Amino acid sequence: MEFEAxxxxxxxxxxxxxxxxxxxxIDTILAAGHVAPTGCNxxxxxxxxxxxxxxxxxLRTCTKCHFGAPCAMLICHNKEESWKRPYDGALAxxxxxxxxxxxxxxxxxxxGVGSCWVMHFDPAAMREAFAIPEGFExxxxxxxxxxxEDAVPKHxxxxxxxxxxxxxxxxx
Length: 172
Ligand SMILES: Cc1cc2nc3c(=O)[nH]c(=O)nc-3n(C[C@H](O)[C@H](O)[C@H](O)COP(=O)(O)O)c2cc1C
What we know:
alpha+beta, NADH Oxidase, four-stranded antiparallel β-sheet, 4 strands, binds flavin mononucleotide
């Protein structure tokens, strides 16, 4: 897709067909995440791909925002590996994980796979359900699948704040 159309037409899909996501599509989405920029190129992200009936059932116990999706990716970051800002110790790794997730979300839309970024999950439950090791933080859940016929954007999808409320120019 052309970039402008891609970023304007993508929306959070919350209604999916039951069909599994094709392996080639999953590979394409993961490849887009793989080339995302990260602080100092450390690549502290770790991505858990879930598609079996058993894993999806387990996932549903960790979040109400699963929307019956047939596939999901849990994007975690390794705090120990992260680039750390020397002034205040701020970590790049949660930002890195978010950029990886954004790449994958857009790549999914580009090939007709719908997604919804989900933060509303119980991290402790997620950690237990999928045996996530210490030091790895689950940052984002991307639920994925082919959009159902009735999948539509929420009414506020196109409500953007006025540009001058979010952008500030220096005085030239
Ligand atoms: C960091 C982040 C967390 C989000 N968490 C959730 C969530 O837990 N549940 C949900 O239904 N949508 C979630 N969303 C989707 C947003 O609600 C959605 O992107 C926003 O309302 C704009 O709508 P659009 O994606 O259709 O453009 C999240 C999005 C982001 C970027």
